[in-house]
Amino acid sequence: MVVGVDGSPESVEAVDIAAVEAEVYQTNLRIVHVRTPSETATVIRSRPRDGERPRDGTRVLAEARRRVEDRHPGMTVEEHLADGDAATILIEESAHARLLVVGARGLGGFTGLLLGSTAVRVATLATCPVMVVRGGTHRSGPVVVGLDDPATSAAVSAFASREAERRRVALHALHIDNRGPSMEEHSTSDIDVADRLSAWSRRWCDEFPDVEVSVTVVSGVEPADALTEASRSAGVVVIGSRCRFGSKMLGSTAYALVHRCDCPLVLVNDR
Prior knowledge:
39% helix; 2 domains; Rossmann fold; 10-stranded mixed β-sheet; alpha/beta
């Protein structure tokens, strides 16, 4: 389990949930701080923002480690201080991680991580799933999984089912049918979608018999809107990170939820 930290309140929240995830997965936690070129050159602002202290990577890591060890005695915690580009370092770290956890915003180092090209790089190139922590960190609601095509969402569904099992909560799948008003020529397609959703439900119920699985089909709304609404009562939302049709770009739904999701969001590379 890897978490990026820069001392901001958002990254502290990311450390907290990463530690919980590490405990649930019974694995160690690696805390990473990336010093930007400006930090390395000791270039600082003449007047810090209110409530912000000058940052030192070693101190940030030490404080994060103490916080985890105080709350999770016995957990193995590693620290890693790196210099360079935050996205590049995190992508490299993801190669050996089950999950990469980051806060939605930061002070520096990870500043802008989820607000532009860096977000695209991390979400699309990370080897492991990426969890974006924003709001509702300790909420114990169900795992909500956004299903595009049930037949091709195996990686997303597997992660979501496993997460529900480990959290001991229900798994709620949300499939958005945005083909427009129902028409007679859609009848065959409607039956096909229903069959695929039934097959999806049977598969994951069989593989995770202790998880309560439910499926909801929503029509006439954008996927991002439906998932944002669902996130208000969810413990975590899990979706695929990529665009449809094999694109390597971050999907529009994923991009919207990074900014709007009301609970931790997990982006799974499903292409």
